[in-house]
Each structure stands twice: as C-alpha cells, then as structure tokens.
C-alpha cells in the first residue's frame, strides 16, 4: 500500500509538471499580445515595450517558465519600479495585473466558496439521488419507480441556468422568501450563509441527483440479478441484510467512483451557479480570468484545479479498494 | 476608456470597445437622453444608492489610470476631483460645458495656448483634513509618465507637455519613480503658490478640457504605485465621499461614506445627497434586469452599471425614445459614447474604389437588426458622432451627396450592383478579404451577414473570429490581422481632436487602418493647433468628410444604450459629459 501511494504521488508530481509546461507553452503560442492589453487606449510602441518588460514577457519562454517555477518554491517580486514593489512569497503562482492581486490569494479567497458550494450540493444529491434510486430499484415497475424516474428525467432535462433564474425570480424577487445572495463564511454568519447557499445547492443538486437516481437504480437492479444475491436469499437471510449488506455494498462501488470525480470537477468551480448567484468562487474567477485574458490567473487556476482532480482520483482509487475487497491496490 | 467590458462584448458588435467619454450637443440626435416624465419625489439627504455592476471589479480606481466614461463620472462625482469638470445637466450643450472644479476658473492660456495656468481653490482638503496643494496636483500628473507602472490611463500629459523625447520616441521624463528627466518635468510644470502652470509643446486650445482626464492630485506619501486604489491600498479622497471598503470578484463591494473633511464651500459642483454609495459587483445581467424591473426593497434605490438586456427592451421601451407607462421616469435611452465602424487596412486594400465598394455592399440594415435593431444605434455617416457638438456635420454619406456616390443614395441594405461598378473602376477583380471580429455569438452572426452581403458584390470573404479578450491585441498587428474588422471609438471630450488624430495618425494610438499619410498628418496638426474654435470645427468636419470619401474606415452605427434605475432614485438622465448617470447629483427619495 505504501509503495503504491509513493508511486501515485510521484506520478502526480510528474503529471503536474507536464501540465504546467503544457499550459505555459500553449499560452505563449496564443496569437494575442498581453503587453498590448495592459497598455490601454493611448498606446505607442514604446509604452507597449515598457509594459512587455515589466511583465517579463521580453524574456525567453524558458526563462519565464523558470521564473514561474522559482516563484513557487522561493517567491518573486513584481513591479520592482513601483514605490511599493509587490512581494509574492512562496508558493507564488504569479501576480494578476488585471485584478491587482496575487494569483494564490485570489484562488485562496475563492476556494472556500466553491468548497462549501460543492460539499453542500454533493450531500444533497448523494442523499436524495441514492435513496431515491434504491427506492426505485426496490419497487421496480411500480408507480413509485415510474414516478421517481419521471422526476429524474425532468431534473436531468432542465438547464441549471434556467432553474437558477426561476428560483431567483420566484423565491427572491417575487415572494421575498430569501434575501439576495451575499456570501459570508459559515463561521461568521451561519444564517446568512444558509440563506445564500440553499438555492445554489438546489440548482447544482437537481441535475446530479437526477443522474444518481438512475445510476443507483440501474446498479442495484444489476446486482439483484447476481448469483450471490440469489444464494443469500436462498440461505434465508432477511431481505434487509440482503439489500444493505450484500446488494448495496457491491452496487455502490461504481457510484463512489462517479461521485468522487463529480465532486472533484465541482471543486474546480460551478461556473453557471456561481455567476447566477453572484458567488465569488473558482468558477466565476475562472470565467473572469478568461474574459480578461488574465494569463497568470488562468495558469494558476488550471494548475490548482488539475491538482484537485488528480488528488481526487487518487482518493477514489483508494476508497474503491476499501469498499470492494476484491479490488487490490498495488 | 480603456478596457474590455463584458457588457460591451455582450451588447454590441464592436467586441471590445475602448472608450470614451463624452457627448454633447444634440445635432441630429433623435434620441432622448432624459427619462420621459422624470423621477417623481423630492430629493432626500441621506440613504444609500446601490450601483449594480456585472463586472467583478472597477477597471481602475487610481485617478491617473481611470479612462472609462462611466468610471470617470462615478469617481469624479464622489471621491476624485480634477482641475476642471463638467456641469451637471441633461442638456446636451450645458452638460458638456467645462467648469471649474479644483481650480478657481477654467484655466488661463497665454496668447498662443502653449501655456495654461490654474489656481487651486482655498479650503480643498484630503480626507484627513490636510490641504490639497499645487505640489499634489503636479505629483499626480507626473505619475502618468511612469508608463510601465501607471498604465492604461489617458496620456495626454505625455503628448502635450513640453518635454523632449528620448531616442526611442518615448518621453525623456520617466516619471516620479525612476526620476529620469525630473528636471525636464519640473520646467514644464511649475507651482507658484496655489497656481500650477503647464508649458505645452504646441498650442492646445482645448487644454482646459484635457485636464478633466488624469489631472487629479495624488499625495506622494499616499502613492503605492501599481497597487494604488486597489484593495489594501485604498485611494485617498478629496471629494465628498471616501472609500470605506473595497473587495473584488463576485459578491465584491465598494462602499463609499461621507468624507467628514469635505468642505461644501470649496465644491460648487457636487450635491452630496446620499449618506452612502454601495457598488455591488458580479451581478448576472439577467438577474440585474429582473431586480431593477421589480424594484423592491433596496433595489428601489439601485441604478444599473451597464445596459438593459435586449430581451427586456420591449418591456421597458415602446421605441428608443419612449418608455412604457410602467417605467416612466426610471429608464433612459440615448447615445452611448461610441461610433462603430469597420477598420480597413489601407496597405492591404489600397484601392479607394474597392474600399468604397465594401461599404456600398454592406447590408447595414441586417447587421443592425442582428445587434438589437433601432435600440442598437443610428446609421453612421462618419466617425464623428452627433453628440460631440459643434464638430459634427453631416458628411453626406447617407444621402448620396458625396462625389463618388454621384447622387445615388446607397440603401441601408447595400447595393451590390453599385459595388460591382466600383470594383470595375479599380481595374482588378474583386479581392479576397479576411474579416476579423471578437468571437461572440452576436458577432458571429454579424460576420455571416458581412460575408453574405459582400460576396453578392463579388468579394470573397473569409471570416476570422478572434478570442474576445485578445481581439485588439491581435488586430493592431498587421502581420496577424486581416483586411478589415470591427471597432468602436468614443471622444474623450467634446472636440474631434480626440477622434480624428487617434484614429488616423500613427502617433494617435488607435490607427487600426494603418494609415500614415503625410498630407493628412499636416491637416490634422493644423486642426489640432487651431486656436479659433469655429475654424477648428470646420477643419474637423472637412476631415470627417475626407474619411468617408476615402473610406479609411467603413462607418456603421452611432451606438445607443439603455439603462434602468429603481423607483426611488433620481435624477434620471444621461449626463452628456460622459454618457453616464449624473452621480454627483444623485439622490434617494422617500
């Protein structure tokens, strides 16, 4: 197990290195000129060159990349000609001249919002999706099954921006049941936190819960047809034990895989929900950075979210082995 | 104006528009900038006005870096004062009249307009109570010369002050941080007591307008350079409000509270009604519209930064001039700052007949319909917009009176046959042209119309969409750009000296057509330095006509925009000076 872990972590580091190189090269191949973008309207070639120098873009790509990596381990200083140079301590992922903020600070500010958004929605969709899926499987062919599958079809079909706008219009604007979303930390003001997050959680959960209802139902039904379940029933085990101890444990394994990855993707930012509900998470940060061609921020977000997803993959693989003893790591 | 605006990207075909400020006397403008009926209710002192913004932050807060009309208007009305400003009025002429602000008058030029002096008022203080001095103004202006730190703002200081150029063409003065050439700056800008004098390298008759942009004071001890004005380094106020807090991103806010040291006697312009201003960032534009339409709770006191979404215009307006009864007094439609056009690289399309044929073939009617119909703008007859005032005169382009049109009025949906005739005059077959545009869904549809209409005249059109945020950085490079593409421009003040020179001279900074014509440059210089304002206007009008005679750009639309406010905020009109809300006069109502 330990050797396996070490191999995976080393693999992660190599993957991240390759990813960082790829991102850097790709952004340098783009046809745009960041120096021109920072120059403004009244631009002259001299001002463009001055800005290119300030941004370090007049240096070879390899030097730029080396400086970026050095910054991660040793920190960097930006805008050295300014009365107050910007000191970016390690681990420094760069400085966003567009937001006038260090990249890591911007990501660190946004990450908790996305974390709470993802975790809250995740809990709702897992609880609702799996329980409804099991219920449908146990009542296969009945009106309960058909009703649950009908609900899941509706949920799966509705775009999240549409659900979000509907909820805002009716719940907030029309009936004033909730105030307009204004994110605060759950530790500072738990009531306002819940008031802000409940609608985004619902929006995110609707789509995923619908998917998990169907996934769970199919998995459980498939397991119900296996020989060992028939054997368990033939042995006279109570139905509760057959379902909970034997059928669900095997049936949930692929669901854990899917859930882990879905959660990881969500931690990279729920773009639509964050923008509709004005949440300062990673998704809205990423959109803003792309719209503004903020290359340092795009690079930082790409690397951080990639790290989260790679790490989540590792966790899922380990959990997989815990849930299903037939799977061995190593 | 300066930076990419998501709302512009979404709302108009120009992609990223740089910008501008201003607007002025009406000539030919059929659009009302004042809400019909006007807001009802008496102004109240106190309360909070909420400015709802879809952006995640201000482009800039630093007084030397702000260059967007709406932002200049907001900060100018609340926390930053300039030597001169504009009068608050819905009237096109009065609303663009320059008036004394920090200075006691609108400036005293010498006989040749190469030297301007401004005397500061007594009693103007910073938010800590210390006086605003001539040295503070001088230091603030000097920051613009540090072009690698204080970037993206207006650079008229660099262009106009009598400071020699270095070998590479940049100013020999490098700003107050490096201090290279400091003695040159000290000669060009001098303080004598409370009077500051600017020595200019050439006559600038409208310099008292120039000083509305970036000529604000900054105290040296407050200056943090790159970060000045950003969260953690809040800008220091000399206006009626001061920044209490500023956070960026979705959910971010800027809160302004009253500046206790502001002295009304020293400020004849600003009314200072509300206790607080709150700017809410990152609001989805569809949600913003719904909030303002409902106008409940605190949204009664909210105003919109940006435009009404196209799908809601029919709910709020019956046409671009009139609101529906429900929204009387709280919606405004009027000229935005921009004239839209398609630049044409004259080196790649050197034949004037071919450029004329491009404009003639263009189906401007279909393009306008695609970007919002009559709400999007009026047909343009040049690059000088009617709201600039006296420098505008019809070029005749739209009524067929230009020589090359020979009395033939080109229909709005194009005339492919006339275009073919013009191409034939060039003696060459119709060329293949590449069309650049910022890649948005609306622009992509516009590009399809451009391609279709020009190909009816025999052109072969390749469409080349560019990533929106990178658009201008690519099309400024002739090696990477196509033959023509979208653009927009707004004047910096009511003088075409801020339109023709930037768009059609190499040193102007916005010469997308890559024009470099010695005769034209001389004519531009002559107009810029003409101290007879009436004569100068005539020169700009002639140059505007020359633009369309030669089709150095293809004029498309004079842009309109529509904005909405809550039920209990006023006054509701578009301030002609910046095409913005009149922030310095705004109030809440009981």
Word description of this protein:
The complex is a heterodimer of chains A (about 325) and B (about 600). Chain A is mainly alpha-helical. Chain A has 2 domains: about 35-90, no CATH class; about 105-325, MetI-like (MetI-like fold), CATH 1.10.3720.10. Chain A contains 14 helices and 4 strands. Chain A has helices at about 1-30, 35, 45-55, 60-75, 105-140, 145-155, 160-175, 190-225, 225-235, 240-250, 255-265, 270-275, 280-290, 295-325; strands spanning about 75-80, 85-90, 95, 100. A two-stranded antiparallel ribbon of chain A has the order 1-2. In chain A, a hairpin with a 4-residue loop joins strand 3 and strand 4 (about 100). In chain A, helix 6 crosses helix 8 (about 190-225). Chain A is globular, with a radius of gyration of 25 Å. Chain B is α+β, with helices and mostly antiparallel strands. Helices cover about 25% and strands about 20% of the residues of chain B. Chain B is built from 16 helices and 21 strands. In chain B, strands 15-19-14-18-16-17 form a 6-stranded mixed beta sheet, with helices on both faces. Chain B has a 5-stranded mixed beta sheet with strand order 8-9-10-1-11, covered by helices on one side. At the A-B interface, helix 2, helix 3, helix 5, helix 7 and helix 12 of A face helix 7 and helix 13 of B.
Mean pLDDT of chain A: 85
Task: Return the string of H and E elements of chain A.
Answer: HHHHEEEEHHHHHHHHHH
Q: How many structural domains are formed by the residues of chain A?
A: 2
Q: Strands of the biggest beta sheet of chain A: in what spatial order?
A: 1-2
Q: What structural class should be given to the helix and strand makeup of chain A?
A: mainly alpha
- Note the beta-strand portion of chain B: 15-25%
Q: What structural class do helix, strand and pairing data of chain B support?
A: alpha+beta
What are the low-pLDDT stretches of chain A, counting only 5+ consecutive residues below 50? none
Total helices of chain A: the number is 14
Number of strands of chain B: 21
């Amino acid at each position: 197990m330990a050797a396996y872990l070490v191999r995976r972590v080393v693999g992660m580091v190599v993957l991240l290195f390759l990813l960082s190189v790829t991102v850097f090269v790709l952004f340098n191949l783009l046809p745009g000129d960041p120096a021109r973008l920072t120059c403004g309207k009244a631009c002259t070639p001299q001002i463009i060159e001055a800005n290119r120098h300030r941004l370090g873009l007049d240096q070879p790509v390899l030097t730029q990349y080396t400086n970026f990596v050095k910054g991660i381990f040793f920190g960097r200083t930006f805008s050295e000609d300014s009365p107050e140079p910007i000191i970016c301590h390690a681990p420094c992922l760069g400085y966003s001249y567009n937001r006038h903020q260090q990249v890591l600070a911007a990501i660190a500010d946004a990450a908790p919002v996305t974390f709470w958004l993802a975790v809250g929605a995740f809990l709702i969709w897992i609880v609702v999706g799996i329980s409804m899926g099991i219920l449908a499987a146990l009542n296969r062919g009945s009106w309960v099954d058909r009703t649950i599958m009908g609900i899941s079809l509706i949920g799966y079909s509705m775009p999240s921006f549409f659900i979000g706008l509907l909820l805002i219009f009716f719940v907030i604007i029309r009936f004033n049941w909730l105030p307009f979303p204004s994110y605060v930390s759950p530790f500072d003001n738990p009531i306002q936190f819940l008031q802000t997050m409940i609608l985004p959680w619902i929006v995110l959960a609707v789509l995923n819960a619908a998917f998990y209802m169907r996934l769970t139902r199919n998995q459980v039904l498939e397991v119900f047809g296996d020989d060992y379940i028939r054997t368990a029933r033939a042995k006279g085990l109570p139905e509760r034990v057959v379902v909970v101890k034997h059928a669900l444990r095997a049936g949930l394994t692929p669901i854990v895989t899917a859930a882990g990855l879905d959660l990881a993707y969500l931690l990279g930012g729920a773009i639509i929900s964050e923008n509709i509900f004005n949440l300062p998470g990673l998704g809205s940060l990423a959109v803003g950075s792309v719209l503004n061609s903020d290359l340092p921020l795009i690079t930082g977000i790409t690397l951080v979210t990639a790290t989260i997803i790679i790490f989540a993959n590792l966790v899922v693989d380990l959990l997989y082995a815990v849930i299903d003893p037939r799977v061995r790591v190593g | 104006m300066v930076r990419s605006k998501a709302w512009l990207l979404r709302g108009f075909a120009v992609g990223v528009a740089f910008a501008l400020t201003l607007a002025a006397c009406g000539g030919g403008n059929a659009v009302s900038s004042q809400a019909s009926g006007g807001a009802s209710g008496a102004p109240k002192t106190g309360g909070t006005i909420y400015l709802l913004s879809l952006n995640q932050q201000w482009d800039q807060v630093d007084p030397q870096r702000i260059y967007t009309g709406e932002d200049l208007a907001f900060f100018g009305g609340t926390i930053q004062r300039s030597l001169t400003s504009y009068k608050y009025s819905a009237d096109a002429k009065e609303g663009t009249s320059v008036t004394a602000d920090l200075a006691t008058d609108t400036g005293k030029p010498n006989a040749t307009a190469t030297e301007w002096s401004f005397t500061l008022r007594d009693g103007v203080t910073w938010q800590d109570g210390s006086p605003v001095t001539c040295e503070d103004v001088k230091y603030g202006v000097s920051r613009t010369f540090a072009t690698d730190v204080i970037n993206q703002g207006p650079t008229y200081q660099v262009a106009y002050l009598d400071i020699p150029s270095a070998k590479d063409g940049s100013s020999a003065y490098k700003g107050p941080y490096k201090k290279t050439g400091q003695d040159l700056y000290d000669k060009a800008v001098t303080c004598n007591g409370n009077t500051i004098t600017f020595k200019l390298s050439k006559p600038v008759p409208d310099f008292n307008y120039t000083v509305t942009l970036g000529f604000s004071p900054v105290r040296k001890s407050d200056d943090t350079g790159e970060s000045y004005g950003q969260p953690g380094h809040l800008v220091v106020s000399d206006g009626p409000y001061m920044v209490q807090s500023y956070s960026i991103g979705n959910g971010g806010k800027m809160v302004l509270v009253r500046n206790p040291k502001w002295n009304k006697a020293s400020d004849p312009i600003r009314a200072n009604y509300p206790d607080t201003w709150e700017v809410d960032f990152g609001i989805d534009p569809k949600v913003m519209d719904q909030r303002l339409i409902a106008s409940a709770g605190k949204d009664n006191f909210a105003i919109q930064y940006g435009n009404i979404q196209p799908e809601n215009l029919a709910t709020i307006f019956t046409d671009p001039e009139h609101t529906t009864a429900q929204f009387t007094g709280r919606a405004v439609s009027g000229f935005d700052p921009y004239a839209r056009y398609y630049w044409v690289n004259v080196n790649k399309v050197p034949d004037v007949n071919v450029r004329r044929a491009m404009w003639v073939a263009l189906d401007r009617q279909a393009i306008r319909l695609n970007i919002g119909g009559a709400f999007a703008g009026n047909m343009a007859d040049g690059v000088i917009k009617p709201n600039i005032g006296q420098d505008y005169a019809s070029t005749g382009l739209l009524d067929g009176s230009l020589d090359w049109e020979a009395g033939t009025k080109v229909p709005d949906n194009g005339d492919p046959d006339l275009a073919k005739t013009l191409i034939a005059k060039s003696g060459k077959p119709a060329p293949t042209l590449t069309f650049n545009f910022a890649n948005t869904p609306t622009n992509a549809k516009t590009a399809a119309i451009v391609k279709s209409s020009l190909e009816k005249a025999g052109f072969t059109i390749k469409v080349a969409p560019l990533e929106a945020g990178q658009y201008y950085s690519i099309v400024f490079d002739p090696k990477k750009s196509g033959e023509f593409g979208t653009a927009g421009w707004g004047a910096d003040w009511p003088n075409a000296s801020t339109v023709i020179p930037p768009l059609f001279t190499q040193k102007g900074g916005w010469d997308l057509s890559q024009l470099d014509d010695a005769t034209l440059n001389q004519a531009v210089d002559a107009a810029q330095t003409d101290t007879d304002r009436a004569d100068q206007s005539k020169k700009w009008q002639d140059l505007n006509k020359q633009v369309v005679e030669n089709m150095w750009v293809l004029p498309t639309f004079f842009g309109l925009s529509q904005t909405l406010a809550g039920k209990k905020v006023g006054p509701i009109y578009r301030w002609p000076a910046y095409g913005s809300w009149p922030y310095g006069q705004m109030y809440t109502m009981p």
